[in-house]
Amino acid sequence: MFLNKRKVILLISISSLIFLLISNQVKSQELKVVDGDTIHLNGEKIRFTGIDTPELKQTCIYQGIIDPCGVTAKEILIDKIANYKVECISEGKDQYKRTLAECFVNNESLSSHLVRSGYAFAYRRYSKKFVQDEDYARINTIGMWSMKFDYPWDYRKSKKN
Question: By three-state DSSP, how is residue 126 classified?
Fold first, then answer.
């Protein structure tokens, strides 16, 4: 009987240890998608590097019809993330103290996905990394490339004036 109690205690101890190790690896994330190229992840504001997406209030024209392309960019990001874990590689901070990073879901770059979907642009002013993805979307007239649109940086500039 004494030996059985020791085995039970040992089994419970090992099970508890395994549970603690697994639960520490499956941390939940606090995630909020702000717009097409900005997220809040565990309280940290992250701006995706190397891309620019339309502003939330920005619209495009598709076959004479107004399309909310800024909102669509955000929705594409939300759909891609779904319930998966987001992992980001920080590249520093910007002038607004946001973390600049490239973020991934299942080892796929969210930035690359947005650009190839035609709802983000390679932000050549800061990086050439996503130019091939942009070329792919443009050549295949995917997303905003099938519409009349202003580049996000031109849209912002026009709103300042």
Answer: coil
Dihedral sign from CA coordinates of 35, 41, 46, 51: negative
From CA 42, how far away is CA 5, in angstroms rounded?
A: 43
- Identify the residue whose tokens are 């990086």: 127
pLDDT in tens, 103-126: 999 999 999 999 999 999 999 988
Q: Could you report the per-residue pLDDT of 26-68, keeping only the tens digit for each? A: 457 899 999 999 999 999 999 999 999 999 999 999 999 999 9
Secondary structure element (H or E) that encloses residue 160, with its range: helix 152-160
Name residues whose C-beta falls within 8 Å of residue 126's C-beta, 6 or more positions apart in sequence.
49, 50
CA angle 132, 69, 142 (to 5 degrees): 35
Q: Which residue in the block uniquely carries the two structure tokens 């508890």?
A: 16
User: Which H or E run includes 47?
Assistant: strand 44-48
- d(CA 91, CA 114) in angstroms, rounded, equals 19
